Amino acid sequence: MSKVGQIIQRLFNIPGIKYDVQMYVVRENPYRLRFDCNAMIFVNQGTTTAMVDQLSNPPDASFSIPGELFEEMEHQFNISFTGAGDNNLVCIMKFYK
What we know:
Elements: H1 3-12, E1 19-26, E2 31-37, E3 39-44, E4 49-52, E5 55-57, E6 62-65, E7 73-82, E8 89-96
């Protein structure tokens, strides 16, 4: 299982609750991404540091924004990358059915 798959399973595995997971890959610098979801995971698979709303996410690092059961987050994230290299930020969202 990939690193992204392992993170999804570890953070989003709730027995008996049905949800969908969507993934976006951000490579543009800068980028604005609007999410209306329950929870978010950001996985930096690039070689540059990703900045998500001024929070630094270095290469091979990830961070999550968890949500309570059936809670919905509405937010526009400002994403940018610092330095030269490969921009590759995987954004994973969880939506309840």
